[in-house]
Write a sequence for this structure.
């Protein structure tokens, strides 16, 4: 990002959650390419180590922080790292990317409640807690930012992914509100709203992707493309970033169409994933 660096190394520091795969791993690569050092966070130590090795070979300094953000201990560890000011070897974080997240697919009455609550913990509670940990210092120094990964599902109710869509509606609303609160301070706050993207997301959700047809099938994107649009939008200080032409049309469409029609269409699209 074209803003003054806070660190002694002369490079800003970005912390990316969910950097062990999918969109987060690509966002970490893009931040490094743009001159950031990194703190990479996820549960999979081996995958974080592999990414760290790759980035270090290009001159990026990388801290690996293994943490399960569905737990109090994991959230606390990342929260403490984000709240750190410059001290000794430690450098403060300039950019937070809240990307870690997951979804469950199925009828709410049939899904185990633990998975529903875990989504709220990861997609909502961890994101709020980490944002709160970093933002006061960013506002104080007047630079840096927060990129929150929401979803196209943020714009509509998600029958078949009810809890997931609700968590992502929260992320979008929260991000827009925080952005407005810090406007004029020099701190950037953006929401990235991807549509269907080929990542480990579908495997964890236990869904099939080959049943998706029509326009929804044509909207599938690759993680590097989604991340590139997201990172460029964040650098350009855009509030809401929707990658892909069809996804952008869908985001506008759901705002104009009657809510009853949106619910039914959304249910039909998600049903194709079962
Ligand atoms: N793929 C899509 O179609 C799509 C569409 C819209 C929005 N999104 C959003 O994009 C974001 C990234 O997802 P993705 O598609 O890239 O999926 P992914 O490939 O499954 O990546 C998810 C990342 O989050 C990490 N993660 C999961 N649970 C975690 C936990 N408890 N603690 C710490 N890290 C955790 C995973 O690492 P570990 O497993 O190593 O912990 C992984 O690095 C999510 O917020 C998702 O909701 C995805």
């Amino acid at each position: 990002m074209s803003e003054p660096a806070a660190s002694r190394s002369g490079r800003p520091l970005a912390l990316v959650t969910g950097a062990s795969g999918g969109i987060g791993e690509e966002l970490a690569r893009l931040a490094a390419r743009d001159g950031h050092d990194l703190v990479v966070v996820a549960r999979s130590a081996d995958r974080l180590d592999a990414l760290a090795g790759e980035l270090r070979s290009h001159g990026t300094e990388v801290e690996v922080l293994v943490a399960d953000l569905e737990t109090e201990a994991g959230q606390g560890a990342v929260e403490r790292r984000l709240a750190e000011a410059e001290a000794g070897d430690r450098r403060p974080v300039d950019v937070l990317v809240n990307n870690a997240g997951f979804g469950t697919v199925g009828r709410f009455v049939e899904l185990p409640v633990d998975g529903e609550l875990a989504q709220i913990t990861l997609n909502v509670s961890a994101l709020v807690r980490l944002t709160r940990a970093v933002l006061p210092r960013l506002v104080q120094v007047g630079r840096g930012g927060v990129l929150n990964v929401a979803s196209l599902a943020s714009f509509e109710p998600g029958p078949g992914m009810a809890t997931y869509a609700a968590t992502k509606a929260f992320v979008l609303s929260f991000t827009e509100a925080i952005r407005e609160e810090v406007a004029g301070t020099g701190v950037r706050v953006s929401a990235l709203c991807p549509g269907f993207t080929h990542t480990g997301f579908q495997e964890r959700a236990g869904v099939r992707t080959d049943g998706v047809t029509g326009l929804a099938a044509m909207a599938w994107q690759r993680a590097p493309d989604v991340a590139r649009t997201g990172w460029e939008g964040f650098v350009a200080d855009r509030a809401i970033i929707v990658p892909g032409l069809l996804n952008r049309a869908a985001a506008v469409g759901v705002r104009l169409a009657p809510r009853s029609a949106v619910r039914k269409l959304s249910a039909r699209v998600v049903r194709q994933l079962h």
